[in-house]
């Protein structure tokens, strides 16, 4: 399978918007971190919101490791891939890395057929929608993403891309200002 066979970003424009008339979903209040809540918990809350608003099966926030330019950490996850929170994966050989390269939201169809590490780690994905976390002066901090796995009726569209763009606002600055620090094993998260 080739890279061009899994990148389907152009399909976003041909898919009907499903939530255009659903004001309650669009106007859901933003989950705001409370005093005493860790950054990881705040990011996880943002993932839960993405999961709900995009009707996805998994959601997550990947942060690029500034010490290792070819790794990223799934800093927060929700849904089916929640057990992978804190795991490190390759950046250059991933949907998140391609989102970085293209500097914009990307839609992927069955990326596990191209990125072999996904299949090796039992990360099987029907669709993945990945949006960049871009900070001040264009600094790229990571991505926010939603995925579908075994529900073939889930097809992400421009509403979902708009949702991820909305949820990504301020995340890069929050991450930069509140360095999550290392996990118990000493890996940056």
TrEMBL record:
Entry-linked InterPro entries: GAF-like_dom_sf
Gene3D superfamilies, sorted: 3.30.450.40
Superkingdom assignment: Bacteria
Protein name from the UniProt record: GAF domain-containing protein
Organism of this sequence: Massilia violaceinigra
């Amino acid at each position: 399978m080739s890279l061009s066979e899994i990148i389907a970003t152009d399909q976003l424009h041909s898919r009907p918007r499903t939530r255009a008339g659903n004001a309650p979903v669009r106007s859901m209040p933003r989950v705001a971190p409370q005093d005493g809540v860790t950054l990881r918990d705040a990011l996880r809350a943002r993932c839960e919101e993405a999961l709900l608003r995009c009707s996805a099966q998994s959601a997550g926030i990947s942060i690029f490791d500034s010490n290792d330019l070819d790794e990223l950490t799934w800093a927060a996850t929700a849904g089916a891939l929640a057990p992978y929170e804190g795991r490190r994966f390759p950046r250059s050989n991933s949907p998140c890395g391609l989102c970085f390269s293209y500097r914009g939201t990307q839609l992927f169809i069955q990326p596990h057929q191209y990125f072999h590490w996904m299949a090796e780690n039992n990360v099987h994905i029907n669709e993945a929608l990945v949006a960049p976390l871009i900070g001040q002066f264009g600094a790229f901090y990571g991505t926010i993403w939603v995925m579908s796995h075994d529900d073939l009726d889930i097809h992400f569209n421009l509403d979902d891309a708009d949702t991820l763009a909305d949820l990504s606002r301020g995340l890069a600055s929050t991450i930069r200002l509140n360095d999550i620090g290392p996990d118990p094993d000493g890996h940056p998260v």
